[in-house]
Amino acid sequence: MGFGESVLASALGAGSNSWTRQQLIESVPRTGVLLLVSFIFAVCCLAAYLERYRRLVRHINCIPGPATLPIIGNALLINADREELFNRIIASRKLYGRRQGITRIWNGMTPYVLISQAQAVEKILSSTKNIEKGRDYEFLQPWLGTGLLTSPASKWQHRRKILTPTFHFRILSDFVEVFNKQAAVLAGKLATELDNAAGFDCVRYITLCSLDIICETAMGCPVYAQQQSDSEYVRAHEKIGEIMLNRLQKLWLHPDIVFRCTSQYREQQKCLDILHKFSYRMITERRSIIRAGHKPLDENNNSETVAGRKQLAFLDLLIEASDEGRLLSDTDIREEVDTFILGGHDTTATAIAWTLFLLGTDPSVQERALGEIEHVMGDGPRDRYPTMRELNEMRYLEACIKEGLRLYPSIPIIGRRLTEDVRLAEHVLPAGTNAVIVVYQLHRDPAVFPNPDRFNPDHFLGDGQRPRHPFAYIPFSAGPRNCIGQKFGALEAKAVLVAVLRQYRVEAVDRREDLTLYGELVLRSKGGLRIRVTKRN
């Protein structure tokens, strides 16, 4: 009998000295048993993951899209400069998804499904289950943490309930004073461009104005961005968006272990240090003010005074809700403040800039908007501030802003990571898919908006406002996870445009068809949006 056979026989109980089964079990070290169980568990998990992934691949590859390479998928197609990348995303529907408005692309082994048809968009955004933000939002988390924009579904639902009262119309009425004050500063700054026949980029001016507005309304502290445009806080805001977008585009920078070895990571950390320190300082100062003389919001969300000034509900409400750190820590509050500043800064500024540029391309629309402003505000000095009631009455100006957002949505792409399967026509999008809503294309559907490339505010007024699918126009997203600050942004846009149009006649320098678009965190034009301004009599 060989050695192996003798061992087997003894193990099974052969001979007088044979082991019992219990002795055999006890002879094996417990660590060995644990390793064996762990190995079996890992194998089972891997098998389950591979089966889910195999199913995902099978369904995703049924959707039309560009040819892929092993492992890297379409990463080479995505690895383009920002202008070319935007063009390729837009071209994908024309090449692969003209009939259904659905195409797919692989970034490495991660699938993305691009959607630009209203019925399909509704199935994604109206879901109360599929409300997880897309994977790409993770690259914002070093800055925003898991605030309202980037938080997982469970945390988002809790935070949304806390933040919703902040945007009550009575509180927004208090903010109009800040809108008007900073818009007046902007109008004064534009006077320096009166003799500039070559034109200037209006985006920079409006972005600084919007940053002043959002910081003062969010934290009660002006940052004087329009007066000190080269401050480290302003520069950090501008730089960090560039870094995060660059990382998103380059597949090899996605792993943290690689990104941390780059100079961009070190630059990102410098920006984060500046931005986070500022937010924490504002939280500390605001808490001290509240403790010194606090009167809470009444049951109708009327803002009372704090130490002799009106309560700015956003930061104050978060501090109140923190319950001395038991419900919201200072980090939680900082996440929401930074999210509010990002969400209400670039997005609103972009909407205002595009609308102003478009008004400069069509003098008849511009004069009609001004006529409405003068009619609503009546006779009086041109530097008089509009009230909230007057802003709400400016329906044509509102239509101009809506049309600007239709043609050039501030957020041209919205992402969702599916947590359960969704059927779109004959296709199935499995759980785990990154669904990408291409808002820019959705808004230019000729079946919904005839002559879709024309700037026509009447799309949103009277006879021009044809019945359309509720998800055919979504500049602020839609469904349960839509933008919480859309009314805030609309009022700010109106106030700024009123201040500019009452003092200046605006003329676009460039033709729309000559613009080169690209997406950062918002939709931009290469070289900016150039206009000329002349003083009104």
Automatic annotation (TrEMBL):
Family under the similarity heading: Belongs to the cytochrome P450 family.
Protein's job: May be involved in the metabolism of insect hormones and in the breakdown of synthetic insecticides.
Keyword tRNA-binding attributed: no
Domain of life according to the entry: Eukaryota
Keyword list, A-Z: Endoplasmic reticulum, Heme, Iron, Membrane, Metal-binding, Microsome, Monooxygenase, Oxidoreductase, Transmembrane, Transmembrane helix
Residues annotated as transmembrane: 31-50
Localization terms from the record: Endoplasmic reticulum membrane; Microsome membrane
Membrane topology of the entry: Peripheral membrane protein
GO CC annotation terms, alphabetical: endoplasmic reticulum membrane
Provenance organism: Anopheles epiroticus
Main localization, broad class: endoplasmic reticulum
Keyword Iron-sulfur: no
Protein residues bound to heme: 483
Protein name: Uncharacterized protein
